[in-house]
Amino acid sequence: MRAFRVRVPAEEDEDAATATLWDHGTLGLEVRPADGALELFAYFPDSVELVMLQAALPRATVEAMAVPEVDWVARFREGFRPFQAGRFLIAPAWERRQVSPDLLVVDPGRAFGTGTHETTRLCLAALEELAAGRSLGRTLDLGAGTGLLAIAAWHLGASPVVASDLDPEATASAVHHARLNGAPLRVVRADGGRGFRATSFDLVLANLMALLLVDRAAEIRSLLAPGAALVLSGLLREDVAFVREAFTSCGTPRERRLGEWAALVYGPTP
Length: 270
Description:
This protein is of the alpha/beta class. The protein contains 9 helices and 14 strands.
C-alpha cells in the first residue's frame, strides 16, 4: 500500500477532490484542516503513481508519505456514532437496540455502505418518498454492498427484497447485516441484472457509478415491471444529464441533490 498527502487550496471543493481520489481507486481517506488549505491523506494500492494523482488534481500539491501502522477498522469504529438519516437512525452494531422500523444497524468494517455517504442518504430519502402511502412491492438493490438500502426498503414495507452484488465480500456483508437487522433479504451474487428475469421488480435501486449505470441502462430498464419505480444514485451533479438521457424511456425523473451528489427518482409521486 502507498500513502499520499494531497494539499488542496481552500477555495477548492472538498467533495470534488474526494470524488477524484475515490475515482482513482483510493483505499481510504483522512481529511485534516490546514492553514488556508485542506489536507487529504489518501491510501492506494502499490500500482498507483504520484504523477497520475498530480495530473488528476492539477491545483493540488501531492506528495508521497510513509504508510503509518494503523488499525484502520478500529480507528473508523472509534469515530462512528449513531446518526439520523431522514426517518432512520443508523447505529453501529455495538450500540444496537431492539429491531424497529426506524433503526438500521451497521457493523462497519470499512466506510463504504454505512449510510454516511451522500449517495446513500439520497437513496434513503428517495425510498421514504416512494413508500409514502403505497407498497414498494418486489424490490431489487443492485450493487447492494452491505445491503443497507435493501434493509431500509424492507423496513418500509418492500417484499420480497433482493440484495445483489458481484463481490463475494459484499454479499457476505449483506448476509451479515440482514441477520443483524432481522431482515429476510434474499442475497444473490450476480453480475448486475443479468441473473434476473425481465419485468420482475416493482422497485429497482442502483447506487452505482454513472458510467456503469449508462453502460447497463438497457439491462436495468428491462428489470422494471409496468409502473415500477427506479432510483439511480452515485451521480455527481455533472453526471445527471448523461444518465438521464440513457433512461429517457423511464419518463421524467425527480432529481434529488445533496452537496455535489445527485439521485434520479422515477415512479409515482406521493
